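Minutes, structural biology subgroup

Action item carried over from last meeting: produce the structure token record for tRNA methyltransferase 10 homolog A (Hucho hucho). EB confirmed the sequence was re-checked against the source entry. Recorded below for completeness.
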Amino acid sequence: AVYNRSQNTGPMSSEYLTPSNEKKDVASATEHKDGQSSANNGESETLSKKQRKKLMRHQKWEEERNLRKQKRKEKRQKRSLERKNQGEEGGEFVGRKRLRKEVTPSSPLRLMIDCSFDNLMMFKDVRKLHKQIQRCYSVNRRAMRPVQFYLTSLGGQLKQNMDKTDEGWINWKDITVKTEAYHEVVAKEELVYLTSDSPNVLTELDETKAYVIGGLVDHNHHKGITFKRAQELGIDHAQLPLNSFVKMNSRKVLAVNHVFEIMLVYLEKENWQEAFFTILPLRKGAVPLGQEGTATEDEEEESDRDSDTAETVTQNTTDNKQD
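Output recorded by EB:
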């Protein structure tokens, strides 16, 4: 048979290869394979002793992957069994979940953070306020007597920062979040605004009331604003009894979460002095009334740097700022 190349445009099939062509192809393939093998051998021979050890360790680690996985599983099962046995025996377990079950019933007292000062703060201060709110939420969840926690007038820069950096906040439990103002959420006669400009001193907590903390980090730029707002709305106001228990040697600042935590500790201990000194560190210049104490320049500078505040405190009641 005569093969006509012009009738077949595809690749030449093997049946039309001559023996000489077949030999050439086989020889070429063999040379290519031998070349690859030589390259691999040369590559392995170029590995240093340290590299070979590293390679062996990696291979061993890969081989033992399933064994490690099984050991982790057994360890988790063992811990789970131990916790279960502790619960059946009535033993104490210090895990957060167990502690949360052992707390006393929540207090009916309401603590509200007024977030209506958003337009008065720089964005860096808004971020500080966000962190303070996170702290309030965290301590309230772990408190022995948690309060009814409210965020009011939430919006603007604060909400944008919360949405961007802490998307999980929308799943927070045991908190009421409102875009409305506090006086639109709770009846005015039930409200007490905490501000150190108030002439009224808080001696005890009324659990039927809702106490409002000003959510403002202003570095003392807006003096008396919370007191003025309370007066304009015609609601009750009061200051914490700091001057009855604490000596302040210089202007000091209490963050929103400091005020919040002081209230929580008082609910548990029913002792203002213990509440103040559980929360306020001595390095901030706070000492029990009657004891001498002098704040250093370094401490004053540190206080200014820590001015994540909603409340400013001085030794003179009329000059205090606790917003």
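Discussion: The radius of gyration is 36 Å.
Next step: EB to file the record with the rest of the batch.
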